[in-house]
Amino acid sequence: MGESEGFGAYTDFGKLRSAIVGSVEGLALPPFNPTLHHYNDEVQAALKACGDQPLDIRSAMPERWEKTAQQLDNLAALYQDNGIKVYRPRPYSEEERAYLADLQPGASLLYPADPVYTVGKHYLEVNIRRAYRRKEVFPLREILAPLLAADSETHHVVMPAAQPFSPSSDGPGPYLEGGDIICYQNHLFVGESDIASNRAGTDWLADYIEPFGYQVHRMPMHGSILHLLGIMVLVSEGVLLLYRDELKEPLPAPLSDWDVIELTEAEALLFATVGVSLDDKRYVIPKGWVGSATNSPAVVLSPSRSITIMLVIGVAVFPAPHMPSGGIPDRMNSSAVPKPVAPELAREILDAVAKGFDRQIDFTKQMMALDSTRGNERAAQDHYYEALASRGYTMDRWSIDIDDIQDHPGFSPVKVNYDNAINVVGTFAGSRTGPLTDP
Questions:
Q1: What is the rounded CA–CA span in Å between residue 431 and residue 422?
Q2: DSSP state of 133
Q3: Which CATH number fits domain 18-338: 3.40.30.10, 3.30.420.40, 3.20.20.140, 3.75.10.10?
Q4: Mean pLDDT value across residues 270-274
Q5: N or C: which terminus of the chain carries fewer CB neighbours within 10 A?
Q6: Separation between Cα atoms, residue 139 and residue 167, nearest integer Å
């Protein structure tokens, strides 16, 4: 969205022009009930200790509150440094804080992506399953009202209210949460589970939006992770990241031929899919994923698509709405995790990748044209040797001598001739000594 370009959102990747960043002001989590299992054990224990009263985070967990506030401010600054207009929600009024408190007391403005969703020129206020979060639409409405009014083609739609029920997260709904909706052109992919959006919610969305030319694809989930955005993200045209085990059914047809970067449960718990595109070449991800035990790369390579560069930022200290209980907190703030990439350095990296992209494709074609099947590796290895040597690598090249290895405990009989099975190693000496990361 944006005043100069007009209001609208048309896909989940591409150039970001403006965004709303949440606030930690007034954060109070509701009294414990079993449906809050997506919070980590520490938070659950604190909620239980509060009995039937909400947990004021600034008072009960001041260090976590400060860290979360700092990370939200850092995210807003990153956006602004990259030319993105940033909006922040105002605090609740006293009357707003009391809204639906009889169903579930508490208040949060951390995640403005959940209570609303924009598709095309349609701004939808939807129903979060947890009643204490349904008040979030009011501060957001104040931000969006002038933007909607400035564009005569916009539609401001309020979803029918969820039926009151106790506990507030049960009942028929309808429930629909922004974290469960992913947009690609005229296709909307919507997660469904027993803990967030339900079928009644996706049916309402389909009834409203499909007459405007959109198609809603329902994606049932097992419910171990809160939202569809917690397991899947569209990174660029034809490329997506996916924790497939959480889905009950195969990917819908519009995504079935996309290149899929498969994620493990551990990577999903490290917020691997909770990110945002800055533009066609830059994608922001949580720093907890990069440098994790899974050694996930900061540059994702797709077999048939272009390279997507990942910038690295911090993640919220409190559970993201897309996360279950296991994937949170302090390990994401470890000094062993890489520091954020400065915007000017990120641009330098992007420019270097773009400058060398055609040469990289040409070299890949040359390698693919050479026979490198088992026992016929010499020509490809010679070509690779010359390529590394020309770039200043210290090179080593040798053939395997069967007599040298046949008595090793791990040796297995060799059925091919090793005369042309050449091994090549290139070593590039760094220009600095000491640890790779600052202490």
A1: 29
A2: G
A3: 3.75.10.10
A4: 81
A5: C
A6: 25
